[in-house]
Structure formats: C-alpha cells, structure tokens
Amino acid sequence: MNSALIPNLDLRQETVALPLRLENNPNTPAVPGRHTHSLVILDNRELDRQCLAQCMAAQKADLQILAFGSIEEWKQKRDEYPPLSAILLNVGGKKIDEPTVSEQIRKLSSEFASTPLIVLADSDDFGQIVRALEYGAKGFIPASVSVSVCMELIALSVAGGIFVPASALFAMRHLLDSSNSTARPLAGIFTDRQVEVVEALRRGKANKIIAYELNLRESTVKVHVRNIMKKVKATNRTEVVFKLNDLFLSGGSAANSLC
Question: Domain named Response regulatory: which ranges (predicted)?
Fold first, then answer.
C-alpha cells in the first residue's frame, strides 16, 4: 500500500486508528468535528483490523472507526478520540470458550459495563453464541454478514438491543421440538411453577399470555421471571432464554454453574 494514499498514516506503527470518511473520493480524510462517537475494533491481526476499519468507515460517516490490537493500546490514546459507543471484538476462528477468549470477553464486559461489547466470529455455532452472551457480550455477529449489515447490528447493540444469528433461532426451535422437554434439565433448579414459566419463556411468550395460560396474575408471573433471572444469573429475558437453552444443549450438566 502506498502511504501517500492515506494522509498521516505511518505504516511503521503497529497500531493505526483510521478516522476516515470515505465517500466519492476514498482518499478524503474525515473531518474530526463530525465524529461524535467512536467504535473500537479489537483484533491482534493487524491487516484484518485495518481492512475491516476502512470498510466500516465507508459505511458510517458520523462514527470514528478505530482499530487496535488490544484495549491497552486504545487506552494510551483514548483522550484523542470521541466518546466510545461500542467495542467490536473480532475473535476470528477462535472458540469462545478458549480461556484467553473467554477471559477477554469477561474482562472487557466488566470494565466497560455501560458500553456494549459485540463479538465478531467466523462461527455461528449456537453453543458459542450462548457462551459469548454468558460471558457478558451484548451481541454476536457472524463473519458471513456484509459490512453494512454488521454496522446496523452494532447500532442495534448501541441502542440497547441484543443480536444473535438466525441459525441460533433455528437451534432453539430444534430444542423446543425435541421430545425431552423441561423436566430433566431443570429438575432441582426451579420449582414446578417456575418450570412452567420457563417453558413459556423459551417459547417467547409475553407475561400477559403466560398469566392467562397458567391462570396466574401478571404480577405473579413477573415475580417468577425475576426469580428465574436470579437463578440463571441473567440480566434480561433474552439472556434467560439463551442460558436455559444452554442447559438443554448440555443435558443439564451446566446446572451446577447456575446454582
């Protein structure tokens, strides 16, 4: 790459922030004042993170896209950039439950609790998605999506939503249709009434519907849901569903970690 194509870009530096605004002229640098927030891409593969950053910069003119090999490198320059909106952790082909990956997700999600951490991975395996959410990620994006879709999904996470691939929903459907239903994996974790609420939650039913079908007050259903969330250590209904289905995938072997 000819360094003259991108002003002020020193190719000798290991870490390169790319505040580019790419429109008709791909060599036009961004106007710093236009960037109100920033997105940090974390990837220890320099070429991968730089390419992804430039592609994303072409999609989002008001968001400064930064690429770093580690969060420590970003911290050294954080005062130079706009407030952080989200962190995109690109794990590539690594498994979420690899110790180094799981620890990185836990650490980032804990340290940046108010900033969504989104995992970008080559795989869309249901078990890996569940693990990522369990470790604190607020979204899981497979590398099979386009850059524009990736940016929209990041925006969803920034707005407070949680995105998971469609393949995860199909996996959930398979679990729901399986002959072994709730009793075995959830035995000893929930009361009989909570098991009924759990099954309804797994089917995506609203509190009003659950109350009607189980002949309960809606306020009682809310209490059951809160207690279920505490038992599985979840912060919202979506996370509850994924953690519950993780129990079904493991045949109940993950129950001890919830108790």
Answer: 38-158
What is the Cα gyration radius of the chain?
Answer: 21
pLDDT at 20 over 60: no
38-167 adopts what CATH topology? Rossmann fold (3.40.50)
Read off the pTM: 0.58
Q: What is the β-pairing status of strands 139-142 and 84-92?
A: unpaired
Of 101, 79, 89, 6, residue with least CA distance to 52: 89
> Domain coordinates of the chain in residue numbers?
38-167, 186-249
186-249: same fold as 38-167? no
- State which fold the 186-249 domain adopts: Arc Repressor Mutant, subunit A (1.10.10)
Q: Tell me the backbone φ, ψ of residue 144, rounded to 5 degrees.
A: -80, -10
Would the CA dihedral through 71, 240, 143, 32 be positive or negative? negative
> Quick check: 119 and 89 in contact, CB under 8 A?
yes
